[in-house]
Amino acid sequence: MANRVALVTGAGSGIGRASAILLASRGYSVGVLGHNQEEIIATAAAIAESGGAAIALAADIALENQMREAVRAIVRQFGHLDAVVANAGINGVWAPIDDLKPHEWDQTVRVNLTGTYLTLHITVPELKRSGGGSIVVVSSINGTRTFTTPGATAYTATKAAQVAIVQQLSLELARHHIRINAVCPGEIETNIEANTALRDEAETAIPVIWPEGQVPITGGAPGKSEDVAEVIVFLVSDAARHVTGTPIWVDGGQGLLR
Ligand code: NAP
Q: Domains in the chain, ordered, with CATH?
């Protein structure tokens, strides 16, 4: 992995943090991008303490100028870019469609979809300059296998669109030796609850009884960020050299139940 450089968005917590730390442990120099200065500095410090190389990059993924500056900074620091993990996202507001306000819809689309677009729009030229690379987009079981999460219409729409983007771009970018794949996590223990607002669940919940707990492989317990990070690092690595345009569900089977 000598001299490989990866950018991870939303790397201040959860799946992004675990992916940044695992990539660094596998020899990647890592750009730790997020909009919470304290958190990204902590992730970068944890990597440095373990002997890895990291740079904290403060940016809102939905703001073009901030993203351009962040990508300039990682290339200035490490010389080039080989891999991108487009992970940052929010659950946003989950509510009945007639109660979901336009500004709430816009915020979920702004972060999850426009943020993903901007991340790719601004990093792909760097991957081309490197002669190729690997992109992993963090989608969800929601919008890909699962449509019963109460009120999650805006979230589900953005997560489905991310997989569509991955499939579309896998063809467009193949000629540049750039692979692009998605991971679709089920319930994972992270801080995402802090970015979730659920209203009027009774009006949108589907009244089903799950057969044997919600996550079959663990007997019901949610997954860990590291469970997703392992698959992300596999997709980034040369071990996945023939894999592109592919969603991988990392959900312990949860998405098949729901
Ligand atoms: P998390 O712990 O909240 O991590 C998300 C990170 O993204 C946070 O550090 C957050 O910062 C950052 N972020 C949010 N909006 C941002 C923005 N506009 N610009 C820059 N950074 C931003 O949640 P997570 O569960 O690890 O989520 C990571 C990804 O996994 C998301 O795309 C999510 O949809 C997906 N996912 C999660 C689960 C799950 O069960 N946890 C399941 C399926 C898919 P702040 O906290 O400071 O806002």
A: 5-257 (3.40.50.720)
pLDDT single digits (tens) 169-197: 999 999 999 999 999 999 999 998 888 89
Is pLDDT of 154 > 70?
Answer: yes
115 CB less than 6 Å from ligand 1?
A: yes
Choose which residue among 13, 43, 108, 122 to substitute to test ligand 1 binding: the one with the highest number of ligand atoms within 8 A of its C-beta. Answer: 13
Would residue 28 show up in a list of annotated catalytic residues for this protein?
Answer: no
Angle between helices 115-129 and 153-174 (to 10 degrees): 20
Beta strands in 49-143 (DSSP E): 54-58, 83-86, 92-94, 133-138
Span 157-166, pLDDT tens digits: 999 999 999 9
63, two tokens = 């703001």
pTM surpassing 0.85? yes
Tell me which residue of 179, 126, 136, 190 sits closest to 23, measured CA to CA: 136
Q: Around Cβ 224, how many Cβ atoms within 10 Å? A: 16
